[in-house]
Amino acid sequence: MPGENLTRDEARERAALLSVDGYEVSLDLRSAVGEHGGEGPRTFRSVTTVRFRCAEPGASSFADLIAPGVTAVSLNGRDLDPGQVFDGSRILLEDLAAENELVVDADCAYSRTGEGMHRFVDPEDGEVYLYTQYEPADSRRVFANFEQPDLKAPYRFEVRAPEGWTVWSNGAGELADGVWRFAETKPISTYITCVVAGPYHYVTDSYERVFEDGTRLEIPLGAMCRKGLAPHFDADDVFLVTKQGLDFFHDHFDYPYPFGKYDQAFVPEYNLGAMENPGMVTFREEFIFRGKVTRASYEGRANVVLHEMAHMWFGDLVTMEWWDDLWLKESFADFMGAFSLVGATRFTDGWITFANRRKAWAYRADQLPSTHPITADIRDLQDAKLNFDGITYAKGASVLKQLVAYVGQDAFLEGARRYFKRHAYGNTRLGDLLSVLEETSGRDMGAWARSWLQTAGVNSLTPQVLLDADGRIDELAVLQEAAESHPELRPHRVAVGLYRRTESGTLERYAQAETDVDGARTVVTELAGADAPELVLVNDDDLTYCKTRFDDTSLATLREHLGSLTDPLARALCWSALWNMTRDALLPAREFIELVLRFAGRESDIGVLQMLHAWAESAAVHYTAPGRREQAGRRLAEGVSLQLYAAEAGSEHQLAWARFFARTAEAPAGFELLTSLLDGTVTLPGLEVDQELRWAFLEPLAAHGEADEKRLDEELARDDTASGKRHHVRCLAARPSAAVKAQCWAQVVESDALSNALVEATIAGFVQPSQRELLAPYAERYFAAIERVWTERSIQIGMDVVQDLFPSFLDSQATLDATDAWLASHEDAAPALRRLVLESRDDLARALRGQECDEAAAGR
């Protein structure tokens, strides 16, 4: 529908014209259970009453609704003809009064794509579960509204549900006369309203806080999941982190949690990590761990819990006016997630994970052709959907960490406190935040914002060391570079660390200086006269956002002594820098793999270790010269096998190496070991092969023809659950058969029968790096299909298909040429579609440059 993709200009016009006083939304979800006899989609009744004012009586506007049908529309008591005013996505509103009441009675569709009102049937017991997911603009799939973040309003929801179900929404609810009625919300945006309904397993707790003035705050806590996951649900740990986070934010924000209760729902087939609906946060259920996982998984969950909690203030209480300023909520939540993780929970090394994992996401995004300033130019809703990316989240959070170093933590937090109080329940732009930070810090934020928020690209910082005749530092400078496409040289507050080996052989810091780097070359005067370093680490302590480079001496030291670096954050920063060098074709993939095999076994931080595994696998698959792939694969498999046997029995490191071993195993020895571990004829001391690990072992066996359909069906019978079904689908799709690949392609590209979760699982199995020849025919089919898929399917499924089925494993100049040909012949394609293809093209071109670097290294 042409009206589905709301533009920024349309939103601004409507916001200037309308203001919303409140919504009453009545949903009848009883149709979620039982047989569905109709030919069309399964639907539910949605009746919305919205009261709003118009600044120009007599003017026209529109309301948003995406629904299969509308039964009745009434405006100020006048019945309108739905066939005349509803076009499938918008309801035309003409001759508005100063004060208006709109009533819309619609048949809305349950979703299978995770957008709107998602309906899931648990294959384990046949139970039906519902939840809503709206960001950025899918509440219009559930009720009629004005779908833009700056038209805030209070909401009253009432829901009729199947007997025996429980229903939750943003406010507290109660059941009376067969209807669930919920307390009116504070003024909030459409995209953070929420309904969760079904026979969920529900656990309760409470949080209490007494403030200095004697006032007492009590927040009812709840946590829920499907009944089938209840045996695995560690709600106590979720509540622990929740209470720690609430304490932390109350201590630092000086604004009590404003939304009453605090429920957290872990829901099936969720597209995102989580969503910050006030009072009713939703998470993907994979955060409930069915098997043994490492500490990094618990840390990741805690970070997400705290990220969403930070949104209660940054995003829900104070909301950006339009998606241009999405960073005002996502960058802050990402930063506050790590900040509170370190300050309030047992995960005191959270900044290491941030430096190693989150910033890697940002570095990749910021070097794509689609890179954009943190404050982006969001023309419409398709732009908005794609800008939930590594720049808005991780780069924005990194820049905020730099901002804290720039203005000081006290000034930063005082600015946040003033921001909440000044703009509570309102909408803001960039200038609103900058003004309070100028007040509290006394600094001119304009120049800082222009450099950091309003320009794109990542700078590289390289040390330059000149020694005197006595072997001491005569001059140490930091050289700053920027890409030609984004030449901005930014001001950086950095710490420069000097490291050398001790008598015991460890590599330790012996001097450090904080300084402001500005321009192409900055001299660090504080380090003049220091003993000559073996390693200079620019951006020690990870204060700024940059790509760290090394001088020749430092790089030689890391090649021989990286494992001796005692500080875990410094070590993580070095690994990140080396990976960036590999991606930039400055370090051959073979050398990066050898560094991982040589030193990763000594890595103490489990999150860093798991990231190294992912990077090493990527180096072998994408950045290794084609003629060396087989050799690199064998070398990696052999090295990982040695590390698996060397890992401490029962440790999380053993588990991490076991999972990596499954991904790198080769015939015959690797597959024989996986098979033996599965059938129990071989055991490794301390390694529990639980159900999740069994599926991890089965996928590579399936991909190499060592586990057939019968074997996979037997495993599904052992794990006949929703999670087992997803694993089963992925493993079936991984089998090395042309018929299998054709069936998968038809299911995902030519049909919309699969749910979002099964589309994801099918694509993950379909795309196997060891099956390049089988995948070769699908490059041409991909380019022939993507524009149609983008037009016909939901944006979430469209993104999954376009991004994940791009023929990246057919990494040749021919594939690059085919991509360029598609782009040249589809200049009028949807900008969001072209952006996704351009991003995949850039990854492919980067991989080809990496392969050239790796090939050139063979002759040296």
Task: Produce a short descriptive summary.
By secondary structure, the protein is α+β, with helices and mostly antiparallel strands. It is built from 28 helices and 28 strands. The strands form seven sheets. Strands 5-4-7-2-1-10-13-12 form an eight-stranded mixed β-sheet. Strands 15-16-17-19-18 form a five-stranded mixed β-sheet, with helices on one face.
Features:
860 residues, alpha+beta, 8-stranded mixed sheet, 5-stranded mixed sheet, 28 helices, 43% helix
Give a topology summary:
Layout: H1 8-17, E1 18-28, E2 43-54, E3 61-64, E4 69-75, E5 78-80, H2 82-85, E6 90-93, E7 99-109, E8 116-121, E9 128-133, E10 155-160, E11 166-169, E12 173-176, E13 179-182, E14 195-198, E15 201-210, E16 216-225, H3 235-253, E17 262-267, E18 274-275, E19 280-284, H4 295-311, E20 319-320, H5 327-344, H6 350-366, H7 381-386, H8 391-407, H9 409-423, E21 427-428, H10 430-441, H11 445-452, E22 460-467, E23 473-481, E24 492-501, E25 507-517, E26 521-523, E27 535-540, E28 547-548, H12 552-561, H13 568-583, H14 589-599, H15 606-623, H16 629-646, H17 652-664, H18 669-679, H19 691-703, H20 709-718, H21 722-734, H22 738-749, H23 756-766, H24 772-775, H25 778-792, H26 795-804, H27 813-825, H28 831-857
Parallel strand pairs: 1-10, 16-17, 17-19, 20-21, 22-28
Antiparallel strand pairs: 1-2, 2-7, 3-6, 4-5, 4-7, 8-9, 9-14, 10-13, 11-14, 12-13, 15-16, 18-19, 22-23, 23-26, 24-25, 24-27
Helix pairs in contact: 3-4, 3-5, 4-5, 5-8, 6-8, 6-13, 8-9, 9-10, 13-15, 14-15, 14-16, 15-16, 15-17, 16-17, 17-19, 18-19, 19-21, 20-21, 21-23, 22-23, 23-26, 25-26, 27-28
